[in-house]
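Please decode residue identities from the backbone states below.
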């Protein structure tokens, strides 16, 4: 039975990249910044040059999925390199003698890409950057300068001195003492007037994070990623508004967010695969009892598997849409950013924004469940689950703060133009169906909030605005799961068990709200819990097929417990 129609298009690329796992740089006992960047270069050189991958988005995202399983730190650096830096230089830069060598070094991985945007004095500072880029008309150069300590750039992974970097720096364009908003500039590190200090201590994803001060650092006119803007004798001519220019200058974040979403979702598939393979072997007590005979463990694992499948289908819709957009030549719209409040660079694509939030929340939840299911083995870094959990922690901030993204999506949903159609009830069980209840939940909450926000303004209702975004996300995920479960022949029957379990988890999680609004009756929760038990048992019967369907071979996931005969594998470490 073919259990991989969902992943068939990228499995050859994953198999190609698996050849890297036998290379010295990918030895799992190696650690440190040098190893991370050696892996990045090996990965990039096998996956392909940056400019080529910009026009081959399917291959690029398949690579991000592979990297998310194998090494989250390498994946993060690759995401910035391909998603942000390459996108900005290719889409907003114009070929010239100054920019072309920088793009060539992106292609060869001799100077991987970085993003220099966030500033020390204000979190989420993309909307209020203060780093300046003064245009010198006589020399036709730009002078990048940090006006004070609050404007220091923070977090770019450029502190390790073993490798040059090609960065995109976002700064305020100043021409003839007039501020023309945030623009993007290509910048090569090291630079004599860019002072870099490594941030002390560690982070969930171990990279060379830094603090940067620009001290009148001069760059050429050709390094301005001017896009459609020009400097004339009268000043700056730009067809975009300042907020549209900000969104365009940070447009590469859209590609990075998509890369992050697929990589995080891939890591969740790996985490649940590792936990399932271990728990099918794990014994406890006397006499030795298979741990999956405990309904507590079996049910929790089944729900995690269902959740991973659900998020995978939703994120894959965003993956397909991104590929189609990139192949069509669309470079990213600034439409819809005028009324954005929290994340204008992502406001034009709500599904893409929510996919990153969904993937982060999914990995955080699933990895925590898998860690608990695996006991002490689950907390060992060698078994990779806690590495994935750290990845989720990091991406609550990377690629846009999760809460700000949810608030941006929630504000958009309040206009009511995207109110979901509520499926008609069909039969006695249908009023309890997950998609119907989620659609009602979203519509009622949006209607209530619309009036309250018009009356009071948004600030008193931010918690409900965030809740609206979360409910919308659940409804969209259910829709994509329903769509995916209608295809695949015999595979459909197996995945449908996970679909039913995920829907029941969703309804039970929100049962109190539905009871309060009369959409469920008190006795319905008992019916739902009984159905949940039955659905979890069905997922358990299909456990092997469902795990095989996630397409995470043991060698790619690494560690010991995600393989057969883990006892023998660990015992061989002894003399």
């Amino acid at each position: 039975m073919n259990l991989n129609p969902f992943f068939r298009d990228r499995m050859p690329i994953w198999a190609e990249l698996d050849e890297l796992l036998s290379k010295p740089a990918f030895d799992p006992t190696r650690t440190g910044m040098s190893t991370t960047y050696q892996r990045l270069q090996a990965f990039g050189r096998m996956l392909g040059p940056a400019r080529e991958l910009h026009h081959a988005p399917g291959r690029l995202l398949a690579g991000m999925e592979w990297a998310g399983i194998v090494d989250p730190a390498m994946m993060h650096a690759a995401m910035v390199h391909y998603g942000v830096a390459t996108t900005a230089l290719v889409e907003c830069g114009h070929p010239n003698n100054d920019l072309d060598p920088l793009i060539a070094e992106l292609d060869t991985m001799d100077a991987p890409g970085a993003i220099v945007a966030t500033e020390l004095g204000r979190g989420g500072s993309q909307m209020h950057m203060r780093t300046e880029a003064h245009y010198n008309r006589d020399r036709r150069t730009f002078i990048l300068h940090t006006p004070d300590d609050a404007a220091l750039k923070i977090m770019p992974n450029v502190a390790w001195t073993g490798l040059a970097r090609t960065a995109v720096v976002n700064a305020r364009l100043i021409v003839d003492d007039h501020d023309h908003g945030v623009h993007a500039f290509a910048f090569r590190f090291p630079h004599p007037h860019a002072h870099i200090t490594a941030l002390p201590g560690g982070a969930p994803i171990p990279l060379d994070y830094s603090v940067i001060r620009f001290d009148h650092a001069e760059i050429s006119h050709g390094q301005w990623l001017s896009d459609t803007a020009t400097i004339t004798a009268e000043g700056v001519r730009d067809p975009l508004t300042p907020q549209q220019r900000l969104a365009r200058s940070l447009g590469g974040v859209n590609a990075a967010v998509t890369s992050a979403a697929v990589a995080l979702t891939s890591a969740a598939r790996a985490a649940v695969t590792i936990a399932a393979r271990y728990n099918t072997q794990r014994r406890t007590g006397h006499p030795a009892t298979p741990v999956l005979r405990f309904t507590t463990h079996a049910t929790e694992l089944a729900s995690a598997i269902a959740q991973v499948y659900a998020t995978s289908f939703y994120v894959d819709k965003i993956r397909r849409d991104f590929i189609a957009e990139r192949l069509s030549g669309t470079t990213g719209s600034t439409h819809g950013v005028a009324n954005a409040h929290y994340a204008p660079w992502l406001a034009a694509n709500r599904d893409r924004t929510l996919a990153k939030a969904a993937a982060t929340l999914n990995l955080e939840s699933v990895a925590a469940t898998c860690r608990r299911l695996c006991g002490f083995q689950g907390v060992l870094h060698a078994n990779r689950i806690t590495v994935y959990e750290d990845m989720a922690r990091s991406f609550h901030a990377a690629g846009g703060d999760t809460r700000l993204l949810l608030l941006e999506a929630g504000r958009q949903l309040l206009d009511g133009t995207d109110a979901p159609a509520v499926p008609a009830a069909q039969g006695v069980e249908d009023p309890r169906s997950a998609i119907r209840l989620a659609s009602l939940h979203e519509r009622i909450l949006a209607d209530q909030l619309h009036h309250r926000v018009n009356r009071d303004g948004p600030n008193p209702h931010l918690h409900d605005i965030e809740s609206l975004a979360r409910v919308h996300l659940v409804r969209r995920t259910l829709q994509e799961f329903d769509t995916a479960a209608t295809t695949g022949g015999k595979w459909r029957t197996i995945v449908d068990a996970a679909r039913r379990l995920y829907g029941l988890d969703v309804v039970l999680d929100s049962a109190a709200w539905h009871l309060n609004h009369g959409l469920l009756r008190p006795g319905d929760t008992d019916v739902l819990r009984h159905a949940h038990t039955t659905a979890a048992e069905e997922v358990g019967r299909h456990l092997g097929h469902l795990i095989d369907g996630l397409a995470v071979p043991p060698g790619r996931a690494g560690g010991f417990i995600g393989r057969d005969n883990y006892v023998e594998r660990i015992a061989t470490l002894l003399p």
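Observation: The two ends are 42 Å apart (CA to CA).
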